């Protein structure tokens, strides 16, 4: 059940846009670092010092750590910052490498999204610019983000400070929560996602497992095409749910006549719950196909001419290489729709560095308007700095 059932945001963030201004000058870097040096979230003695996973949620403009026992659980009304730090290099000279993700829920507010993006930049400053920054959106998480969690869970609701009541006084809604358990096809790994969906029979799909919480009883509905891994993960989800409350649990397969009871509980009529009914609900996470495959393209963002320009530098899968990168500018690599990578040269100007997120989002809007690629905005975005490139960036650039 969502922690703030009956509450909604007064103003949601348009996930296609950004309200964050990144100046990028040397003075700006110093100001951001000084700000980061006084941010309690970064100054716990572990951030930037120890390897591991750290997660914070934006609450009323503040960066608040969340308990480790709920790592991997996100709410669609919130924005989060996730830091993954790990050791790299030879054993006698190891250093920490970092990924900084700002995750934006589908119903997060403009203020929360803006704060998460700004604070992610600040955290990178605190780490001396060595981190790879990632913009993550609920509907289309990157492979790197999903791989951080044995089980990624997305629930409805969010932090209470960002919501307003919509229930009439005295009105009380019956508890009905439906969770979809599935393997994330875009991850390329055995990553399982648990995603809260609309509690209706139209949310069912033959290929997945669903957990229906009716308050006094929990039902597990196994689609006829679901995998053993999905069944196992659903069992873990139910185990976690029953620790907090002792209720009956019933597991049914779609191939059993008893499974029709679940479909009826979700509002279906007899004609919708028959033995031969096929359920094909859209997956709550977008696939790469929905983002539309595109040619590999490399763009240069430069103000060398005295005016900021954004121009195509190379096109074609085999034509892009490290030789095309110039440390005096910023480059955007569209990895055939899989991800958009921004490479920031150490000699890039403040204006060039300031515009990376805005330019990436403008590029995706142009794909939507000019090329009719409605799902372009779902493409994951990441930024690396010259000398601190991630392995994922080099793979995208096709460097052996």
UniProtKB/TrEMBL annotation:
<dbReference type="GO" id="GO:0051015">
    <property type="term" value="F:actin filament binding"/>
</dbReference>
<dbReference type="GO" id="GO:0015629">
    <property type="term" value="C:actin cytoskeleton"/>
</dbReference>
<dbReference type="Pfam" id="PF00626">
    <property type="entry name" value="Gelsolin"/>
</dbReference>
<dbReference type="InterPro" id="IPR007122">
    <property type="entry name" value="Villin/Gelsolin"/>
</dbReference>
<dbReference type="InterPro" id="IPR029006">
    <property type="entry name" value="ADF-H/Gelsolin-like_dom_sf"/>
</dbReference>
<dbReference type="InterPro" id="IPR007123">
    <property type="entry name" value="Gelsolin-like_dom"/>
</dbReference>
<protein>
    <submittedName>
        <fullName>Gelsolin</fullName>
    </submittedName>
</protein>
<dbReference type="InterPro" id="IPR036180">
    <property type="entry name" value="Gelsolin-like_dom_sf"/>
</dbReference>
<feature type="domain" description="Gelsolin-like">
    <location>
        <begin position="71"/>
        <end position="144"/>
    </location>
</feature>
<dbReference type="GO" id="GO:0008154">
    <property type="term" value="P:actin polymerization or depolymerization"/>
</dbReference>
<feature type="domain" description="Gelsolin-like">
    <location>
        <begin position="192"/>
        <end position="242"/>
    </location>
</feature>
<dbReference type="GO" id="GO:0005737">
    <property type="term" value="C:cytoplasm"/>
</dbReference>
């Amino acid at each position: 059940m969502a922690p703030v059932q009956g509450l909604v945001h007064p103003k949601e963030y348009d996930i296609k846009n950004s309200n964050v201004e990144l100046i990028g000058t040397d003075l700006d870097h110093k100001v951001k670092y000084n700000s980061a040096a006084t941010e309690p979230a970064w100054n716990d003695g572990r951030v930037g010092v120890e390897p591991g996973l750290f997660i914070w949620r934006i609450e009323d403009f503040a960066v608040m750590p969340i308990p480790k026992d709920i790592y991997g659980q996100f709410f669609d009304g919130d924005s989060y910052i996730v830091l993954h730090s790990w050791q790299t290099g030879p054993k006698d000279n190891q250093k920490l490498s970092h990924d900084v993700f700002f995750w934006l829920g589908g119903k997060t507010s403009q203020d929360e999204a803006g704060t998460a993006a700004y604070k992610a930049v600040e955290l990178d400053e605190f780490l001396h610019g060595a981190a790879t920054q990632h913009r993550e959106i609920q509907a289309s998480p990157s492979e790197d983000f999903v791989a951080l969690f044995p089980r990624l869970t997305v629930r409805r609701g969010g932090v209470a400070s960002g919501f307003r009541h919509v229930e009439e006084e005295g009105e009380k809604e019956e508890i009905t929560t439906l969770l979809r358990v599935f393997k994330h096809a875009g991850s390329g790994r055995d990553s399982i996602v648990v995603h809260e969906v609309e509690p209706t029979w139209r949310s069912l799909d033959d290929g997945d497992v669903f957990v229906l919480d009716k308050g006094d009883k929990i039902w597990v509905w196994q689609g006829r095409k679901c995998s053993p891994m999905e069944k196992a993960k659903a069992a873990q989800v139910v185990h976690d749910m029953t620790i907090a409350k002792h209720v009956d649990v019933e597991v049914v397969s779609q191939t059993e006549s008893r499974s029709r009871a679940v479909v009826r509980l979700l509002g279906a009529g007899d004609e919708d719950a028959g033995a031969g009914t096929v359920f094909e609900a859209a997956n709550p996470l977008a696939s790469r196909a929905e983002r539309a495959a595109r040619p590999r393209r490399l763009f240069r963002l430069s103000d060398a001419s005295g005016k900021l320009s954004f121009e195509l530098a190379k096109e074609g899968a085999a034509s892009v290489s490290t030789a095309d990168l110039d440390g005096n500018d910023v480059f955007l690599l569209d990895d055939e729709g899989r991800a958009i990578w921004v490479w920031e040269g150490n000699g890039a100007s403040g204006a060039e560095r300031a515009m990376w997120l805005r330019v990436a989002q403008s590029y995706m809007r142009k794909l939507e308007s000019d090329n009719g690629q409605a799902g372009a905005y779902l493409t994951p975005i990441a930024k690396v700095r010259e000398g601190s490139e991630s392995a994922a960036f080099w793979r995208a650039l096709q460097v052996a």
